[in-house]
Amino acid sequence: MGEIEELTQLVARERRARDRGRWTQMRDCFHADGIVGLSWFEGSADEFVARSTAMSDQGDRASHRLSPPAVYTSGARAVIELPMSAQLRTGADGVEGDLVSTGRLLYRVESRAGEWRIASLDAIYERDSLVPAPPGANPTIDTDELASLRRAYRLLAYHLGRRGYTIAQDLCGDDQPELYRSTHEWARAGAATPADGAGGHRL
Known about the structure:
- This protein has 203 residues and is α+β, with helices and mostly antiparallel strands.
- 33% of the residues lie in helices and 35% in strands.
- A hairpin with a 2-residue loop joins strand 5 and strand 6 (95-112).
- The radius of gyration is 17 Å and the shape is globular.
């Protein structure tokens, strides 16, 4: 297997393991000091797997549809940008709907002792949509609350907020491109630096 294929399979395996509840396999995709920053979570890879397990156990499950990633390598380090859409069934005021959040996952990956693992994972949000599942149904949404949320992921934040999750309003998104630019500036600099085994850094 070539290096690009190996890296592509690593990030695909991490997402599929999460979707399928293969928690040991998911944890094995990260370095011991890996870190994660998403809409509903920020912390260590260990805690991310534990919280993902609890999230699934209480019925909050998403399925990720992935597109081919862009992979940038430099020696023992790599940056992978993975386009994706997170899809989940939600109930808004008693009406079932299909929520789709579209964005990119940005992975920082390092090879340590000959093993590629994820050092950090962050999400960049683009947009989201909610389509009622029953034909003709119209869920009632608090439009004032919705207007107060970040446009790039406001429906996702609305849904998760009602499920008891705290969603930050300053995440990377296309509506705040300076965050995306600074992330990629760091990523390019990091990808050009030889790996030193010192551990992951936040993208």
